[in-house]
Amino acid sequence: MAAPLGLARRLLLPVRLPERALKRSAFIATKQYDNGPQWIKVALTLGAAAALWRLLFVIHKRDLKEYERRQKALCEKCTDIQN
Amino acid sequence: MSILPDESRSLLPPNIVNRNSLVLGGIGWAAVVLSNLGYRRPPLGSGVHRQILGLSIGWFIGYYATRRENYYYACRDRALFQYIKHHPEDFQLKEKKKLGEVLEPFHPVR
């Protein structure tokens, strides 16, 4: 008894089409922009930017150490010649 | 010919904040803003994650550009100083003359 009533109520309620589908034109193809942010893309983009910055700092530190090591080696050579 | 040969590591690496990085980072950011304009999106407010990525890529390329620039000018200076050392006859210091020796003696006519 209750099931067919529920079914009838659902059938009698005004049908609401998904509004998003109505706004798209049949002649112009566009991407849907009101879906909300695509969080996976945002996460990947920000992750890539963070990785680039980390790489930059790592490379800078490594090359600074290498430069100081070479300068020290040069100075040691100079003192050897003097002695 | 590599971009950065091994001897470029004998040079002091440039600061993380440098002019080429700023310029190229700005160009990367502007590229993202331009693409926003092309897609008819709000230019400055939309796609902040893409703007950050554009800035970062430009900054990274600018850092390597600065290192390459430093290496190029260091090589040029080395060649220049070696030439000066090997040809001292071309680079004699001129004797400095005092102005009193250069001018004629002054005889006032009154």
Binned, the helix content of chain A reads: over 70%
- Secondary structure tally, helices of chain B: 3
Q: Main β-sheet of chain B: number of strands, strand sense, barrel status?
A: none
Number of strands of chain A: 0
Radius of gyration of chain B: 27 Å
Low-confidence residue ranges of chain A: none
The overall pLDDT average of chain B reads: 92
How far apart lie the N and C ends of chain A? 109 Å
Straight-line N-to-C gap of chain B: 76 Å
Q: How many strands appear in the DSSP assignment of chain B?
A: 0
Largest interface: A-B, 18 and 17 residues
How many H/I helical runs of chain A? 3
Order of helices and strands of chain A: HHH
Mean pLDDT of chain A: 82
Topology of chain B as a string of helices (H) and strands (E): HHH
Structure class of chain A: mainly alpha
Subunit structure (chain A): Complex I is composed of 45 different subunits.
Family (chain A): Belongs to the complex I NDUFC1 subunit family.
Organism (chain A): Alligator mississippiensis
Membrane topology (chain A): Single-pass membrane protein
